[in-house]
Amino acid sequence: MVNDKSDSFKQLYTTNYRRAFMLVKRYVHDEEVAEDIVSDVMIKLWQMMQDTVLDSEEAMLLTLLHNTTLNYLKRKQIEAKALENVTCSYRREMEIRISNLEDCTPNLTAFNEINNLVDATLSQLSLLTQEIFRMSRYENKTNKKISTFYNISIKAVEYHISRALQTLRVQLKDYLPITFLALILFLF
Question: Which residues contact 145 (CB under 8 A, 6 or more apart)?
Answer without folding.
Answer: 135
